[in-house]
Amino acid sequence: MSGRVQGKVALVTGAGSGIGRAVAVRLAQEGARVVVTSRTEAHVRETSALVGGDALGLVLDLRERASIEAAVARAVEAYGRLDVLACVAGVDQPNEPPVAETSDEEWDEVLAVNLTGVFRLCRAAVPVLADGGSIVTVGSVNGVAPRPNAAAYCASKAALLMLTRALALELAPRRIRANCVCPGVVDTPLTDLFLAAAPDPAALREEYAASNPLKRIADAREIANCVLFLASDEASFVTAAPFVVDGGQLAW
Q1: 8 Å CB contact between 31 and 7
Q2: pLDDT reported for residue 160
Q3: CA-CA distance, 228 to 233, in Å (whole number)?
Q4: How far is CA 59 from the centre of its chain?
Q5: Is 244 helix (H, G, I), strand (E, B) or coil?
Q6: Active-site position among 153, 194, 208, 243
């Protein structure tokens, strides 16, 4: 298939690496004009080069309201419209602190990026998002089923799912759909941080692969394909959905 999002303008957060980079590339391959955003300038340049064409690269820090509002304004200035908002950026805690050892700073950082930043981005983008457009957030299976020593992450992703569903109801009169992709373990730089922090990285990788019936870790492109589907008109009757992409992990 080709041209599945032809002519659409898509702003992607967290596009500097991992799932966000894969999303930016897939949307561009299927015809979208992509606004590549990341809080790391070097990563913006790298992904923009992979996207090619007339990709607009912007440094965007989801912890800063002014940065969010400036990025949305610049995207509309450059392309005259905004059709897709792909909220992929997220953080976790590879040190896996239990609740009693989680600092205020650690809690605030996770919620600021994973939840508050997405809220502020949607608040800025919704007024200029085209009717019939699409918002796709990237949550986690841990927003549906928690894991220990990850209270901040689990709370942020569960709240993100509910924020997405609330947006779907609110924006339905404008035919704007909002859905949340909930991945399991994915081969990304964030996963690499968890592996690097483990006493036995190889054993942890095997544990990750064994956590689902398909017995493997997902590739970032596989998650990006689901975001692409939800961003496209093929998903025209899909909204308010938790779109679980976990290799069957939650079925166990």
Answers
A1: yes
A2: 98
A3: 10
A4: 16
A5: strand
A6: 153
Nearest Cα to 226, choosing from 192, 182, 190? 182
According to DSSP H, which parts of the chain are helical? 18-29, 41-51, 65-79, 104-111, 117-125, 151-171, 189-197, 201-209, 220-231
User: Reduced to 3 states, what is the DSSP secondary structure of residue 186?
Assistant: strand
pLDDT attached to residue 1: 52
Instruction: Set out the domains of the chain in order of their start, with CATH numbers.
Output: 9-186+220-236 (3.40.50.720)
79 part of the active site: no
Q: How far apart are CA 105 and CA 112, in angstroms?
A: 10
Phi and psi for 101 in degrees, rounded to 5?
-115, 5
Specify whether the CB–CB gap between 180 and 243 falls below 8 A: yes
Residue 37 tokens read as: 């955003």
pLDDT digits over 10-31, tens only? 999 999 999 999 999 999 999 9
What count of other Cβ atoms lies within 10 Å of the Cβ of residue 203?
11
Reduce the DSSP state of residue 73 to 3 states and report it.
helix
Q: Which residues are 13's β-sheet partners?
A: none
